[in-house]
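Quick one:
INPUT:
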């Protein structure tokens, strides 16, 4: 159940500019004039989606118990579901997968959504991927405009019962404009659950992702090389990044992630690929838990996480994390230009106008710490931090950063690090209502 913040802060912030001093000793808190640009996120006006009407309804012919095994029945539904999708192209309507008596399951290989159509999985119904989609890149694919997946049923990759030799994604968009994921559950992915790449416009709303934290590289949502994306009111348990914004083909910009819970993941992340540039990313009113509700700990319990390196680095700017509640995490705030495990186009990692305001961490695991590390003395990380209260305030690996601090429980310190004060006049500590 989504746990909303019990306090809300306005969008406009003022910065009082104290008199600048000239002392620049690394790690020393000084007064400085400064200016920051807050992220505004998705430039669209986004509202809760509505489920499209049916173009064609298909009845289930399997039970979940028959197909949710390592070697399911040899017959499946691939041909009839794909035929229905082809027939419903350009209708603005949906192929609906419905239960029939005790039959509540569909079993398919790769399915492709065409222009202006959707796939709806009804309540109590699950679409399972068969063994053969292991040889495909994904189970559900779309490169077309105005497509979507809708619930309240589930799409299941069966990685909990079948060993995949390859790394298929569960749902993949490829240059698809105006994609929607609404009120659907994605679960048991072998690799990323939802990968949104290219195009313009995507809305992920009331989407549940439930893949165990121990499933390697099974990111919750990857947002790659696209502009104008909103993720809202969603719950994500996954085996890698909860949400990651990255660039493998072109720039990523104008993205909002809000009112969302992540459990047992590697955090709310930027990177690691940033070589085409990441701009105007707003994270607001989110909860980060370092373990799942079942108690399974993340394999790398990051919370706020910005990562890249020279093998795939570029300019990351105008990123705002606002009102973030953190529990059971280990790496509470990581800004790291030397991530060390990245592939892509080489470039210079640059972090500018990174703002974290209103963050609370509690019940952090043993050995927790924060890292703020720019690339080198010519490419300093630039951070504005306000109203941050962490229960563990150990610093590890800080270097090459210019930080502006207002009511922050820790003080960055290291080679090439300078700290100044700034005044954030309206924000405060978030009031967190943790669910467990």
């Amino acid at each position: 159940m989504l746990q909303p913040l019990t306090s809300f802060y306005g969008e406009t912030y003022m910065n009082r500019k104290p008199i600048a001093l000239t002392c620049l000793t690394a790690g020393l808190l000084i007064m400085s004039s400064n200016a920051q640009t807050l992220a505004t996120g998705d430039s669209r006006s986004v509202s809760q989606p509505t489920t499209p009407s049916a173009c064609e309804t298909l009845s289930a012919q399997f039970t979940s118990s028959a197909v949710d095994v390592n070697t399911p029945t040899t017959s499946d539904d691939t041909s009839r579901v794909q035929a229905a999708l082809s027939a419903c192209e350009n209708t603005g309507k949906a192929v609906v997968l419905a239960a029939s008596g005790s039959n509540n399951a569909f079993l398919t290989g790769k399915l492709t959504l065409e222009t202006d159509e959707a796939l709806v999985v009804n309540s109590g119904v699950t679409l399972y991927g068969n063994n053969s989609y292991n040889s495909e890149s994904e189970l559900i694919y779309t490169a077309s405009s105005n497509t979507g997946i809708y619930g309240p049923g589930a799409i299941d990759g069966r990685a909990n019962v079948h060993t995949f030799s390859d790394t298929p994604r569960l749902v993949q968009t490829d240059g698809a404009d105006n994609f929607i994921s609404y009120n659907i559950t994605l679960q048991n992915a072998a690799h990323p659950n939802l990968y949104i790449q290219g195009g313009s416009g995507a809305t992920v709303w009331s989407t549940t992702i439930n893949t165990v934290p121990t499933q390697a590289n099974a990111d919750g949502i990857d947002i790659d090389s696209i502009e104008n994306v909103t993720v809202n009111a969603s719950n994500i348990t996954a085996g890698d990044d909860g949400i990651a914004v990255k660039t493998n083909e072109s720039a990523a910009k104008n993205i909002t992630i809000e009112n969302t819970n992540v459990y047992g993941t590697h955090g709310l992340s930027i990177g690691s690929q940033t070589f085409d540039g990441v701009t105007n990313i707003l994270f607001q009113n989110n909860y980060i838990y370092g373990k799942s509700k079942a108690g399974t700990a993340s394999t790398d319990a990051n919370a706020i996480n910005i990562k890249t390196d020279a093998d795939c680095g570029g300019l990351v700017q105008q990123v705002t994390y606002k009102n973030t509640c953190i529990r059971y995490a280990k790496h509470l705030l990581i800004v790291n230009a030397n991530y060390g495990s990245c592939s892509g186009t080489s470039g210079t990692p640059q972090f500018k106008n990174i703002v974290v305001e209103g963050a609370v961490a509690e019940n952090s695991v043993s050995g927790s710490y924060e890292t703020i590390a720019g690339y080198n003395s010519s490419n300093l990380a630039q951070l504005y931090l306000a109203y941050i209260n962490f229960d563990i305030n150990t610093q590890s690996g800080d270097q090459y950063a210019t930080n502006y601090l207002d009511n922050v429980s820790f003080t960055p310190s290291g080679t090439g690090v300078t700290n100044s004060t700034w005044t954030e006049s309206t924000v405060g500590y978030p009031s967190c209502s943790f669910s467990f």
